[in-house]
Design a protein that fits this description.
By secondary structure, the chain is mostly helical. The chain has a domain at 63-132. The protein contains two helices and no strands. The longest helix is centred in the last third of the chain and has 66 residues, at 68-133. Residues 70-125 form a coiled coil. Keywords: Coiled coil.
Length: 139
Amino acid sequence: MPLFKSTSQRRNPSPPPPVQTSSGGIFHRNSRTSTDSASSSGSSSRNTRGGGGFIGLTRNRHGLDNDPSIRMARQKVAEAERAEREADAALLAARRAADGAREQVKMLEREAVEEARRAKAKQAEAKVINKSAKGLGRH
């Protein structure tokens, strides 16, 4: 048996370990020790760098897609992503509402300025009419 793993040699595929249904969290270790895994695989070293994904695990490796805790975690992530999208949409709607309110206030201010201008002109005209009416009734 060689000291180091050779890539030219093929390993006999071992059956996948049984799926554990207990949820122990993300850092939960299974009950098998490294000596158990070494004796079951027939070699003293395991390929820890193989496969892609999170910490070297490939998707659906060892039937993890059917694990209730994995499904629940994926569901929670999907719900959080949906909540973020809804929050983003609500934020955009709130910004549009605030912009609309600001525009309404500006329009109200313009109307008030215009009404003040008309009131001033009306006051000036009333003053002129009052001066011309002072001479009435003195005969």
